Amino acid sequence: MAALKYAGLDDTxxxxxxxxxxxxxxxxxxxxxxxxxxxxxxQWEHPKTGKKRRCAGDLPYGWEQETDDKGQVFYVxxxxxxxTYFDPRQAFTVEDVQHKPKRYDANTPAxxxxxxxxxxDRVVVITGANSxxxxxxxxxxxxxxxxxxxxxxxxxxxxxxxxxxxxxxxxSRVEAMNLDLASLSSVKEFAEAFKAxxxxxxxxVCNAAVCTQPWKLTEDxxxxxxxxCHLGHFYLVQCLQDVLRRSAPARVVxxxxxxxxxxxxxxxxxxxxxxxxxxxKKDYWxxxxxxxxxxxxILFSNELHRRLSPNxxxxxxxxxxxxxxxxxxxxxxxMTLLFNLVRPFTKSMSRSHFRHINYPQTSAALSPLxxxxxSGDSACSQGxxxxxxxxxxxSADGLSCSVWAFSRSCRPAARQALSLGPxx
Length: 424
Description:
alpha/beta; six-stranded parallel sheet; three-stranded antiparallel sheet; 12 helices; 32% helix; elongated; disordered C terminus; WW_dom; wnt signaling pathway; oxidoreductase activity; lysosome; WW domain-containing oxidoreductase
């Protein structure tokens, strides 16, 4: 108020009343501007409130807008046969509110991101969706109308998760299907069963993962962390790529991790080494195996996007958040203890992962999903920097293509899968 008094703007009782020497006028298209006769200037903002205003609606019955010889707008009241420079609509002006796009951060719940979105025409498949990040993602999509398939190894727990979502909203379209990423034959069976439903596939979320578990081989003869976190998803996408193309615009989302930065994939000759990705028991360290699998996720996402984006299928890698409490650490007591100690300071499940994903308010048909922060989250951008650092020639695509070719050669079943574009 002191500033207003000093400027001579506090002589009026109403906040919207103009100070002495000011006049309110309007343009032809109804925008209000203010003329200061003392200083011979005009401005759009109200001299006291700083707000912009415009006239709403049409002129009253019997009124007409004209322009005088000086180009100034005046108004003719044909009923009362009078003219005035005052727009009769100015008594009902409305504030010009600038609606800025809402910004989201690490504290934004997933349901708030999707608020107001109608996903009833979308089909979503989420791996590892019976608990943790996957469950919260499935719940968020289902509560906004999407048809969600929970692709899980444990069918009993998956059915329980389906029940929880349907209990929250009885009209939700959620179902569970069996998928064991530690078995490539199970991956193939899941893909065939899904295709038999004759559904589209707009969003495929590669979420399932294991961490800090003891060394063991899968039935396909590969180290389990590598196969579950990366190779199983790689094969799954190849088996479903024809459905994704038919459903375009579609998207594949690969859940990676910031921990990918603490490892590499190449040997001293600069080639992708199976001994690093699927090591023998004597060379195995659970966290290092997890880190390498997460780096594979980003390289896979990068190459998949390059190959399928011309067909309307995009791919992004996301980082769900640091030190977030989930059950992924259940295989190692030390990691479980650490997560329990920091749990009071970590994010809840509802504030993880799909804070990065949102349907735009404009045409969902043209762009079904939008990933905040450009084409991917921090894990994706960090991954690109990591790829440049690993490649002597600075080619990120080179390492991505090498991991792609290597993944296809890991198992005969993978080699027999349909190819996604030309080989490197």
